[in-house]
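TL;DR need structure tokens for one chain.
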Amino acid sequence: MHDTVTIVGNVATDPTQGRTTSGIPVTNFRLASTHRRFDEATQTWVDVTTNWYSVAAFRQLAEHAKVSLRSGDSVIVTGRMKIRAWENNGKQGTSVDIDADAIGHDLRWGTTAYRRSARSSVDASHRDAGATDPRDVSGQPSHSSDDVADIDTSWAARDGEFSGVEDGFADSSVPGPTTF
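>> reply
TL;DR here they are.
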């Protein structure tokens, strides 16, 4: 069993790309997550500790990570964490590895320009056959950029706060969130 985690940090090494023994693309990089606290005595923020992670992205995520990420980038990584002990030349240690499910730039610290990539032939054959995207847990078909106007946004209605969200305005007959 693996724990799913989300880590906010900085890419510490330029991503490197390779392939698994079965030919699947994999991109690896180190991720540094530094924790800070406010020092009342000096009235400044100080670094307390840095946690280090080895991140691996596979398949299309690997291709996109290699092209998009550079050392120093602020990122958010979500994936399955594995902790393992290692030994090499008489030295021992523990490695914390993350098999990434999603990686994105942390927009608190900068901007990025998103560019949708072309679908692979496997994705296109699923769409042409009317199949749903296997990653879509809703069971709804995936959408291409050509049919964005047809995307169902009912997911935006949460816990009855909003309903009938249309053209960016909530239905005024539905009460908004309660404040205490």
